[in-house]
């Protein structure tokens, strides 16, 4: 049940008092969604290289497919983690408790490291073969 707080301007619920925190939480969620979408875009970029490689470059084909599929899966997971974090933080704002969320940050760091290494390997192989 939401408590009512009184001030000179009137009566406010707790959610109205913490509106800035809720709006910041929404902006953070949308930023994570953009990050996940960008990671998915990297996957499509890598998968596009599959179609540009010739059939005898099987290693490049497999590496591009791996990078593409992995990027799409990791991007979707980032968006799912972001949604989970959004609701956890929303509850924390209502309960006036703050716990830093490091799980999603570490996951994105690891994901981008994996994708970056795979893209470096893919581009290096493309440069050697061409």
From TrEMBL:
Membrane disposition: Multi-pass membrane protein
Leader sequence residues: none
Cellular compartments annotated: Cell membrane
Sequence intervals crossing the membrane: 29-51, 63-83, 104-129
Alphabetized Pfam families for the sequence: DUF202
Keyword entries, A-Z: Cell membrane, Membrane, Transmembrane, Transmembrane helix
Domain annotation DUF202: ranges: 21-90
Organism superkingdom: Bacteria
Main localization category: membrane
InterPro entries from the UniProt entry: DUF202, IM_YidH-like
Record PANTHER family: DUF202 DOMAIN-CONTAINING PROTEIN, FGR18P
Name by which UniProt lists this protein: YidH family protein
Annotated source species: Paenibacillus gansuensis
Taxonomic lineage: Bacteria, Bacillati, Bacillota, Bacilli, Bacillales
């Amino acid at each position: 049940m939401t408590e009512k707080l009184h001030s000179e301007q009137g009566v406010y619920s707790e959610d109205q008092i913490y509106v800035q925190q809720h709006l910041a939480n929404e902006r953070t969620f949308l930023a994570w969604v953009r990050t996940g979408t960008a990671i998915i875009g990297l996957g499509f970029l890598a998968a596009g290289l599959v179609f540009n490689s010739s059939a005898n470059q099987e290693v490049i084909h497999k590496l591009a497919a791996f990078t593409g599929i992995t990027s799409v899966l990791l991007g979707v997971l980032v968006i799912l983690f972001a949604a989970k974090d959004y609701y956890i933080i929303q509850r924390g704002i209502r309960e006036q408790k703050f716990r830093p969320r490091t799980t999603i940050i570490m996951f994105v760091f690891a994901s981008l490291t994996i994708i970056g290494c795979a893209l470096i390997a893919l581009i290096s192989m493309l440069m050697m073969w061409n």
